[in-house]
Design a protein that fits this description.
globular; alpha/beta; 168 residues; 5 helices; Rossmann fold
């Protein structure tokens, strides 16, 4: 189980931003048993990594989507939102979610936007976090965005491996 998921209790309402093949969502649903899990992924190509490679072509994304749908087909407590993460965040009221797990666009700009747009949706006592902290391939975009969030609030940056989180 990923470290982030150890902080999620059963019966909560949350969002996964960036579903890909559905592996993290599957783990959340099996291990944490949320009341409701919203799955946000437009399954559209985006950005590029440090090497200038576009993240996923249309055929690969279609395969990921089919895999996710197959993997998650038996769960009745999910709702798909096939839209950009910023647009999806606007469909939720502030302070309405117990947790948000972000594993979407890893660029500094988009990771920063995701944190800023989703953190206000999380209730006091909730948690926002994600994957790919310390990911060199994407130019450490997630790392820089998370570190900036902590530094701008004069909060010491916790030691993270690949998952990061912020208690709200």
């Amino acid at each position: 189980m990923r470290d982030f998921f150890k902080n999620i209790k059963p019966g909560l309402v949350g969002v996964e931003v960036g579903v890909a093949c559905g592996g993290h969502a599957h783990n959340i649903l099996l291990e944490n048993k949320p009341e409701k899990l919203y799955l946000v992924d437009p399954y559209l190509p985006y950005g590029s990594n440090l090497y200038g490679e576009v993240h996923s072509n249309k055929e690969q994304l279609l395969g990921w989507k089919e895999t996710a749908y197959t993997t998650l087909k038996d769960f009745t407590n999910i709702e798909w939102l096939h839209m950009d993460s910023i647009v999806a965040s606007q469909t939720f009221k502030n302070l309405s979610l117990d947790f948000v797990y972000i594993d979407a666009d890893h660029s500094f700009h988009r990771a920063s936007q995701d944190i800023d747009n989703w953190i206000v949706k999380v209730k006091s006592g909730g948690i926002i976090g994600g994957h790919d902290y310390n990911n060199q391939e994407d130019g450490y975009g997630v790392t820089r965005a998370v570190d900036l969030w902590y530094k701008s609030r004069n909060i010491p940056i916790p030691v993270f491996d690949t998952d990061w989180w912020i208690f709200v």
